[in-house]
Amino acid sequence: MCGIYGITERNLEWVNSYINKCYYRGPDMSDVFYDENITLGHNLLSITDVPSQGGQPWKTNKGNILIYNGEIFNYFDLCKKFNNFKPKTQCDTELLAWGLDEFGIDFVHQIDSQHAFALWDTSKKILYLSRDHAGIKPLYYSLIGSVLVFGSEAKGLLEIVPESRNVDFEALSCWSISGLNVTRNSFFKGIKKIMPGETIKYDLETKKLIQIKRDLVLGGKGLDYSEDEF
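User: That's the sequence. What structure does it adopt?
Assistant: Structure tokens below.
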């Protein structure tokens, strides 16, 4: 596992504090990207390559910035499918960055993955947050006025989100009744979750936060059984 963290303003002190709180998510390497509009941080747990090859935040060929926690299960299949992708490392981060450059955010439909990532479009000043279809990787966020904050663990947001040390009773009620909290709210008031299969974007110029995709896993007797998929 790795950790991703960010805020839509220049705030290195807060992001570095978040990184330190969650250092165990990625003890191999940590780093920060910032400009006047955003600060992004990452903890790296190196799995497929040496830390120096997989360090993030990752700058794409188009100059966008990616921070990513996850694994692309069909990595080798996609490498064969897209023979114009010429990897320089063994990190699936490189493939994700390339695909987002080539196909835009729709590339999430190509990957079979567990993921939570943030992509900063440096030219359009748009931040994308995305989570895998099964919700394996966590991603929390809050909009404080016109400032969006997010991260892999809710505890890193407690110091900055107003009233977040209070219980969110909608989330608690849902969990108490059904045994699951299926709401967007976390148990911490004011801190929300990117939902499973969801991708949202925040436009820093218009200050609008909107959902742009939601892939739902649907079951039912009408679906044919596939041993390979199972």
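The longest strand covers residues 113-121.
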